[in-house]
């Protein structure tokens, strides 16, 4: 049986990666698609594990050759989901989780209408800003840019199948696992 495509999106700093890691730890039939990006690796990030770090030219070649399921430019860098890995794992019966930005999630829904879109939000904008600052990967100007984008992303949340507040990673991961294991879900909450 073909696996399910689950898209988890939300503002930068909301904790998507932390939630997805917990889902993978608890749910062995799920695979996380590894995104490609043209940005430089952050401290501790490993090529092929956290992202595929490629050049702008390589990324644009993949776009031209229709090897990207979705892609976006964000802060001057490309980010996207390689098509082949996703499709191969879905065909093998694995549930595939895409941890991507909101625009990319909406684009995936156009190509895969059956995809389940889950929007993660923080308890408040103040908490989101605090998380971005604590992460320490962006300067004050980038944090403000991400907060502006987050305001737009929150408006897009109504286009998602499910909306969850990430105030407890373990609880949110368990809710998502429950949702994945159901056959048909169309709820918000």
What are the defining features of this structure?
single chain; 9 strands; disordered C terminus; alpha/beta; five-stranded parallel beta sheet
Write up what this structure looks like.
Residues 184-189 have low confidence and may be disordered. A hairpin with a 2-residue loop joins strand 5 (68-74) and strand 6. The longest helix has 17 residues, at 140-156. The chain has a single domain, classed as P-loop containing nucleotide triphosphate hydrolases (Rossmann fold). The strands form two sheets. The chain has a five-stranded parallel sheet, sandwiched between helices. Strands 4-3-6-5 form a four-stranded mixed sheet. The radius of gyration is 16 Å and the shape is globular. Helix 1 packs across helix 7 (169-181) and helix 5 crosses helix 6. With 189 residues, it is α/β, with parallel strands linked by helices. The chain has helices spanning 16-26, 56-64, 83-91, 102-111, 125-135, 140-156, 169-181, and strands spanning 5-9, 30-32, 36-37, 52-53, 68-74, 77-82, 95-99, 116-121, 162-165. The chain has seven helices and nine strands; from the N terminus they run E-H-E-E-E-H-E-E-H-E-H-E-H-H-E-H.
Characterize this entry briefly.
The protein has helices at residues 16-26, 56-64, 83-91, 102-111, 125-135, 140-156, 169-181; strands at residues 5-9, 30-32, 36-37, 52-53, 68-74, 77-82, 95-99, 116-121, 162-165.
